[in-house]
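Listing S7. Sequence submitted for prediction.
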Amino acid sequence: METSTFDPTQAVVFDLSRGRVTLEGTGAVLLSADALAQVCAELDAGSVRQLGSLLGKQAGLRVKSRTSSSALTLEAMTDQLGGEISLGGLGSLSIERWGQALVIRVESCPLGARSADLMSAYCEAALQAAVGREANAVVVERGPDAFRLLLCGKNAANRVKGWLGRGKSFGEAITALHQNPRDGALGGN
């Protein structure tokens, strides 16, 4: 098993004399997961995505500051992004390969029904900020304690959303992408 490259040492600092919390040198605020879940439940989908994008961009910039994007392997990016998500109390991240398709699995995100929506925007923005690569994170499966996000290009995202909207399962959509990977739908752009 590979040793983690994510080092949370001194990532969060509590300065009780000044009433401040910092996350890698930037001011932070602690709030309960229940409070954030309630706020997300009241927001429209666009606002939830905007919040996810803001949080993801900040996480991606922290990853970028700690790593060299040219040497950032898939495993290292998973480790760093997973560390950011865990540090923020947003759950546990893992990567799954489905043939050429790359799927992010997030477990234990405490934000209720809006977890997948917020985290899809989070992952898109984090990848853009960390490595300068645009990706769409399409919610392909929702469960009671976990969800999956397919990382793909814009054209593939639109195709997958269409298939899912017509009742295809996640597995059927991935199979369809493999059978017709036009427009760089798998493994890239």
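Caption to Listing S7: primary sequence and predicted structure tokens for the chain studied. The chain has one domain: 12-184. The domain at 12-184 is CATH 3.30.1380 (Muramoyl-pentapeptide Carboxypeptidase; domain 2).
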